[in-house]
User: Fold these one by one.
Assistant:
Number 1:
Amino acid sequence: MTCNDLDARIGERIRSQRKKIGLSQKELASQLDIVFQQLQKHENGTSRVPASRLYEIARVLNTPISHFFDVDEHKSVARTSRLSDVSAIMDVQKGKMAKQVLELITAFTKIKDENARADIVSLVVRFSKPNTRS
């Protein structure tokens, strides 16, 4: 499945869940503070859904964020379990922590330099150890 196929599948799942709970595009867009045309593009798969917006969509539609990624469980068990791990973390986190986790993931995915990403992971791992001073 290509990225474009995945974008389309995520859009289909957004549309399906929105209709299931009886929201119009305009109503959902309003709750997300975006114009309905943007939501329409997300649902059609012509515009990728940013992680932070997908999180908000899942919240408004009262569905786990993992619902939008249940594509083909036979494709990649490792990828699915990693995604499930992130979903589980997001489900447990509340308030400020959830927002920070989402901001971190969103920003991290935009970093093109592989060495910079590795350095960031090392730094976060180092700070997460119990004996690390703040």
Number 2:
Amino acid sequence: MSRRLTIALSEPRKVADLLTAVCADIDDAAYAFLASRDGLVIAASGAADEASESEVALRGSALASAAIGIGDHFAVLSSHGRLQSTLFESERGCVGIYPMSSTVLLVVGTAQAVNLGRLSAAAKKIISALQEPNG
């Protein structure tokens, strides 16, 4: 049985508000945004006047699209099945890219002290909130 994700893409402000609230509740998530597979921002956490998060979403959406495309190719090449995520760990935090559907990506970024395991746990909470925003 496949579980379908329904996001009201026609109401990006509501999705952005949900992402902002969820990131505020999850200590390990510094920001999150939804992007299309072709690199466009759908909705981003943070207030509309927060330039740094908007800039991350604008630039990051294109990079996320490219990274997930490369990840897809590696998964196919190595016969490991469908790609679940693409993760990056740096000295000041982590970023994870999660395919939500064939056209939508979730990007989650962390603060400096967060490792890949904690990023994955935070992302699962965000995905759960997106799948059942009222529950």
